């Protein structure tokens, strides 16, 4: 099982590398892949997240669309393209630069909407922030509002910081998440706590109450990065 997971993860890394080489932005890449090879956006997202790999025909179609060698895309053998496949295997390649991904900063109203409702056209005019953290094909930034996640000790997210949200990522206790109320679609940023079979949304500011996640709440995504935007400097 571990070997299969490692193969899928390595394939996902190469797929992201191929997308970046074609100047295909991270945001909406799942939708673009689905159109390239005729699969559902959900299937494409699983490829990008390392949850599954395409079969032979789809793998070939994907490699052809991205103009990379199928042996490289599937197994990591040789170079990415025909031009780079003849390098000396005895020469260890130098580490490449850190890769950055760009994601749009959307509104809290959009964050509460279903992901399929946040069309690429709706975020085309949004401010974009880079990150070296992968947030999936539908990742997005949100600007922190209010003092509920401000703490005088340890981790703190003051108002005005931006957080990178990865929809659909697995969440463990003590990690930070964005969740929304089912009835109102109102989204909130809190620390996820799992205790004795119960889930809670905990603010870092003790002046605000901890809320139990019942049937009225669903997770939007896990926070994988946070920083001050350049606009505050």
Task: Give a written overview of the molecule.
The chain has 233 residues and is an alpha+beta fold. It folds into 2 domains: 2-84, 434 Repressor (Amino-terminal Domain) (Orthogonal Bundle), CATH 1.10.260.40; 101-232, Umud Fragment, subunit A, CATH 2.10.109.10. It is built from 7 helices and 9 strands, in the order H-H-H-H-H-E-H-H-E-E-E-E-E-E-E-E. The chain has a 7-stranded antiparallel sheet. A hairpin with an 8-residue loop joins strand 7 (198-202) and strand 8 (211-212). Helix 2 (29-37) packs across helix 3 (41-48). The chain starts with a helix and ends in a 6-residue tail after the last strand. The model is unreliable at 87-95 and 116-121 (pLDDT under 50). Residues 34-73 form the HTH cro/C1-type domain. InterPro entries: Cro/C1-type_HTH, Lambda_DNA-bd_dom_sf, LexA-like, LexA/Signal_pep-like_sf, LexA_repressor, Peptidase_S24_S26A/B/C. Pfam families: HTH_3, Peptidase_S24.
List the helices and strands and how they pair.
Elements: H1 2-21, H2 29-37, H3 41-48, H4 56-66, H5 70-75, E1 101-104, H6 108-111, H7 120-123, E2 128-131, E3 140-143, E4 162-167, E5 176-181, E6 187-195, E7 198-202, E8 211-212, E9 217-227
Antiparallel strand pairs: 1-2, 3-4, 4-9, 5-6, 5-9, 6-7, 7-8
Helix pairs in contact: 2-3
Summarize the structure.
The chain is an alpha+beta fold and 233 residues long. It has helices spanning 2-21, 29-37, 41-48, 56-66, 70-75, 108-111, 120-123; strands spanning 101-104, 128-131, 140-143, 162-167, 176-181, 187-195, 198-202, 211-212, 217-227. The radius of gyration is 20 Å and the shape is elongated.
